[in-house]
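Hi P.,

Sorry for the delay on this. The queue was packed all week, but I finally got your sequence through. Input first:
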Amino acid sequence: MSELVPILFLIPLLGAALNGLVLTRLSSKAAAKIGLLASVGSFAVALSLSMEVLKTGQAIQWETSWIAIGRWDLRWGFVFDQFTLVMALMVTGIGSLIHLYSIGYMAHDDGVRRFFSYLNLFLAAMLVLVTGDNLLVLFVGWEGVGLCSYLLIGFWFKELKNTAAGMKAFIVNRVGDAAFLLGIFLCLKIFGSVSFSAMQTLVAGKNSLGVADLEWIGLLLFIGAMGKSAQIPLFVWLPDAMAGPTPVSALIHAATMVTAGIYMVCRMGFLYQVAPHAAHFVAVTGAMTALFAATIACVQRDIKKVLAYSTISQLGLMFLAAGVGNYAASLFHVVTHAFFKACLFLGAGSVIHALSGEQDIKGMGGLRSVMPSTFITFFVSVLAISGVPPLAGFFSKDEILYSTLTSEGGGWGLWISGLAVSGMTAFYMTRLCVLTFFGRYRGHAHPHESPPLMTIPLWATALGAAVGGVLSLPRDWHLAPDLLGRLIHGRVPEFAAAGEALSEGVAMIVTTGVGLAGIILAVVVYGLVEPKFSDNPRGPKTVLWNKYWVDELYDVVFVAPFRGLTRLCAVVIDPKVIDGFVILCSRATGVGGSMVTVLQSGRVQAYLLVMVAGALAIILWLGRGVA
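Then the structure:
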């Protein structure tokens, strides 16, 4: 079975090569089928490996030589264990549904073959990331998903804003990746290895490891995760990533790139458990990001940007759970979030497709009657992300908030922050649903339901959003109690509660009540009266409408000085210094050559005259010396 592990990502890699390099004259339909078959084939391999792991309880490993330098033997190592099982099934399962959806969504696009090539490559890179058994192999997949995000965000490259969004994502992630590389180098220095199992053994032994070194490793690796998973201050690329086709947004937000940082922190949980300051930094950053993004989402009008800021906020909650030590809860929310966020983005794509590209909710409304499948699935996912019982988001979000309250690294402050995020999530998601599907239609297009190729993935992901909570029901529930926690037992550190500041039942009631209050408030504000839209809001709403002017601040602090430097290089350094030096050398060579050409006239008489003059000069010089 070990040979199947690399095949897991080689199948979509082959699909990418066939569509992108080999079969360049394929029709759009044939290219789409190859892309879909590659993703489904990878899902079948993931299922086969999962059944073997569940049957034996043993991880499946595969490795071969890569780099041998001195005492370091770095290998291509891949592992498929219970942790990888969860991620691989999520990536390939959700990814296959998005591939199916894309066949309908991209049917009339000119770049279908290129699109599915990039989509397959994205899947392959993410699978390398989640199956790598060491940080260096993980980093190969890490950079791979960064490249694919650049290619897919800027897929419609004929428009400058799309290419700018792709470059923004690429550059911002390079900032985080620089710190991530430093963390890997520090691991090599401290542990002499980047293998997860070897590092975990050494950390458990605590022989000669300094806590400060472990804190620095945890901090540097997390800065890399802040870029990939869009946390403050490296979150600015994700809202602009909506420039790509909607299936790309769904894949990035639900199953691939943004979950990479969460996966890495959970996989390295053994280190964060003994590095409390780094772990607390993870939790606080997650809580701040969750609050920050949730407030912005409350006033956005672009349907995809509301979902983008929602993703940033939900990722913050996942990091909050990981920071307080409950890695199973963080992973649980990754899985449930994959279901309802994929459904929400695909539903948004269905609406945009039906309205001929309209993304402003000002031009929507009243769509529930003409788009029943899109409405029902979108509505279910809105309830799920809002934490309404018994849908999936209720269980995962409740577990995160309760562990935040009861952990040593948590407390009332972080719990209240998470509670506020929960209420705001319910508010802005209900607002989005009401303004899109209820009331009167405010647009000018002719809306219609999407074809089955697009609605089938909607129903599948909505089903996951509805029943996904059974993966990790509370331990005292007799129906499949804590299935996910038992599945990954031993692969991520166990969560140990410090105490019970509030009973779980009371905390659950409070969390649910806050979510329902957010829903009711949104219905009252946006559902009972005719909505009014303003492009120039006043008062406190101005701050949220302008997203706290973070992009403008970055333009002043980072972009403008860099542009000034490039102008200096273009106007002074390049033409005056570099080109001037080259021109000076060429002119000096020309002058020297012209001086030599005086002597090289080609006339024999001149040569004889010079020879005679030289001989006389030598005789006179020698004669003067004798005298």
